[in-house]
């Protein structure tokens, strides 16, 4: 296979403006203010910590962004091989006129200052959106987000529901829900009404998805409200639930969410497989891992019970990818969604992309989302994906099946953008 | 690695006539009668359904084959990327003089009519066998198949035993067994004798294998007849078994099969890992999926207890492939068999083939079987496999190890055909 | 990607002298005495047995090394495709001037005699170390090894602890421990003191690691000495422990080892995932397999409890590799170590190496160890790894990221040797 073929396909894919269907962007502070925002991304802090930098050096209270970057820089040499480091270099070269291959103790201050100049421009947010070819950016909003003060046609709200499913046993979460919906939550019917209110609020404000991340052992199933009503009352009286009761409450709330997805016609993004706080002394957002012993068979009841709901599914590991391929191939309501977190490095993306593209209907694979916290990361992450997609299209379709390049690019456009519009659009 | 090397190896592999060691061919209607038979293959109906075509459109009672094809065609555009679609196009181009790249609402009727002409020829069955280089086709026969009215040296019987192991709790299955063996099945000894009768009947008619597909949680072990005798009596009296009792009966019958494989010198094909009817409202044969949490360690007792029996093993997922590689490498009676179902797409085949060819004795890997329901599918499926095998031989053996092309082709022939003869032949 | 690029990188990697951080070398008989030592390696006996050679042919008591080789040779033709066979040919060509591609019934006796001449040289051990570029070889020593009579700066002791953790329920193991430490082991405190004695003895003699292989279901956790003290007394009185009690004793001893690794500043090599004696009638060392349903989450308590201990981890299967990548990426004390046993063939190494090199800090991946029993195997095994490493460096770093070849080679040197020195050195 010629490298120039792959390069031509990549250029065609690069030209396509994007919708990013899952991010953690704060619409009130979407772009970075300094290199500290960029290098403060958990990928860099957790990898630097993994390579030996103490957590209390990284997270010392009160240090300035520049001081933090200065502490991280010496450890960067240990991370130069990683895909994550390649994103960082690409950001610096594309946006900050950085011309070196490495960030070192010698060159970082110049880079920091240059970044300050660029990021300090009043229209930087618009510039970075344009340079990155981003037309829409989907958010991850807390259930009690007022969704005010930003353009929801550019920054599209999504209702994130981890707190509702897994943390309603905490009084502060119940209070947030009560306040957000202006309801007393005494009865289980109140809880149901409050959840419905959230969907009304979010869809009124242009929300395009309900979303949640799930631990490896979660198995959704229908739990009758009569079963959990007494648990809900216990919580109201300030009593604790045992593990089994809390698990049933989680299942009950999860099922409510799915039912509201039917009513409000929202896709339900499932991000499956993460155990929170496995490394208890890790840095912020650098504590989560997983148990690979999980299966999509745990979602059998859900997929069968909600044929009207579309479930874009992300799996944390490549060992779960074949299940995702097979379940998307069989279930009309299951969609393979992006390349998530621990599988978001080139070798995993390539194999997962290749297996999806050759087995799932082409309308059922959403190629990529950036999962970014700051806008600058869309460009290098999507570029990494587009390179890999170009490689797979070149090998599997142009070379092996004799497709024209035009046809391969059309398939690429569908995977990169067309399916986002069809699946999340309205 | 040069593409022409791979191409030369492929041509050598293409020239080899085949024995297809596992199919679902009906020897009384082996070839397709119309394009409806070809596009009615569950891969197309389930993928079209997955892409949004309603089950009741596909399976509406009484519609003609042409009507059915006409309903499927508009959905085909969503499947053009899949390996399964590539088989379909290859069939149409090889057999029906189809010259387009895609089947569309514009060209399908011409194609349908052209297929009718070809398939309507009185000697089409012989033609397709010849064009596909098929010398023998192994079948999948119900235990009560009379095995009459066809040439068993061309269409080789295999005793399929899923019903015996998993459905003897149903009275109609017991009645079929009673009728097939002309025995009253009152006692557990009667059941044992009936099973022996089936082996006698099948081996008299040239059977070459006993075969079964197994769910992910099955663990065969020896259960004494004394344990299940009372359960058998309960069934005879019309009583139900509980789950544990039914599971023990399954294990008992499975062990009986293995014991008969010793006596009758038959290999025992195990197809491991499928859960039936996971998607309850799926189309016919498009409802089965799996739980990847399964292990060949569950077969430890079996492999140790029956050193005289050869177990050609198919695994449903590529995540089970490394276990198959390792178990075939250690156990003399374990054979890696083909690339099955959800692993039967090019990226999975390539990785699984590569790992097997570099670690298992070359006499212990049966390269491929088509699993086809109609003869026309052998050509595109085996061709897909031969392309991949040529690629692996070129890269791993000619380039990396400096083998001559001749030697690589000899290895390819062994994997494609020689091992089928040694392992299943008599 | 050009083959010559890969070739140039390989040559650079080949030039680097090595430290082999895990072997089973007997320092009193490190080199082979005859071809029988080489072909008696379990890879050849188990594969020949798997291909049909009876165990009693291979292990018949009293046969000479030459007779044994003569019996294995006819079966070698079935193994020519395997990576293991490629090691054998490479040994014969590099060391014994063998010029054929295959070992056959015609040429093996000449080869045997030629090997005798080479291996019979008085300085062969030094020769093979030199030809293989080996500067240090780490051992696997029984806990009661006197560690005398060899140069521990060349052959570096490592304390292997499987017997302590899993076999202290056997009186002969307790007696060996008592004798080695010259202690009565009446109380649990005696046991703790004896374990400490072993660490003193080993570190005095230059030991660089504590090591253990672990079954798939092992989950280390803190068990108080008070819990196991009565079990220890039971054992002392000649009573048996039940399974749960024995498991707690294993956990207790394991935790003691980790605590001593803190005190004595030793890395703790964990080789995770092997079930012993799965194939009960297999040849010597050819009986072990595994259950892939295992997870590094089982080690969560350990990694959190011992931040001061470095855990170089080997996983038995490539299906566990992504967990190893992710856990090394997050936990500062987790290191990805080599490519072990059933994952030590080129396709698994390549994918595992590629995923590690693009996601783990480059200081946290120890590329390879030979696991050899005789010195002659270091050359072909490391050469296999270096070829693959060169391929990954060429593709992922030089081609995809535009690195200079020099920079890629530096990364390769770090992975091959630098990290061994940093992680195991003192
Ligand atoms: Zn996210
Ligand atoms: Zn089949
Ligand atoms: Zn070892």
TrEMBL record, chains A, B, C:
EC number(s) reported in the record: 5.3.1.12
A UniProt-annotated Pfam family: UxaC
UniProt keyword annotations, A-Z: Isomerase
Class of the enzyme per the UniProt entry, highest EC level: isomerase
InterPro entries xrefs: Metal_Hydrolase, Uronate_isomerase
GO biological process, one term: glucuronate catabolic process
Domain of life: Bacteria
Recorded GO MF terms: glucuronate isomerase activity
Protein name listed in UniProt: Uronate isomerase
Lineage: Bacteria, Pseudomonadati, Planctomycetota, Planctomycetia, Planctomycetales
Underlying gene: uxaC
